[in-house]
Amino acid sequence: xxxxxxSGGGLVQAGGSLRLSCAFSGRTFSGYGMGWxxxxxxxxxxxxxxxxxxxxxxxxxxxxxxxxxxxxxxISGDNAKNTVYxxxxxxxIEDTGVYFCAxxxxxxxxxxxxxxxxxxxxxxxSS
Length: 127
Hints:
Layout: E1 3-7, E2 10-13, E3 18-25, E4 32-39, E5 46-52, E6 62-65, E7 73-78, E8 83-88, E9 97-105, E10 116-117, E11 121-126
Parallel strand pairs: 2-11
Antiparallel strand pairs: 1-3, 3-8, 4-5, 4-9, 5-6, 7-8, 9-10, 9-11
């Protein structure tokens, strides 16, 4: 059974940065696509970023981003640590929400069709 544990959330001023981490356990990490989603009260969960591990095949990962975070957020992973990261720069108030890590067999998707989810970590961006 896959387990995902997020960390790194917190309170930050607009324009600041945070790095979220998602520790993956229970299966071979490199076989999964990993995604980050966020949710705010009254809104549906929305896609933020995803990564498809290609490191074991040709050494290149494929990443996907929501338009709202392109150029500001970076998703990456450390295969040796079974951890995926979300580096968030130039944060805006509208980035506030609970951020969830998710894992999907056979690669990521920008929909919420993932097999496993973490418990979420709160990110609050203040003015």
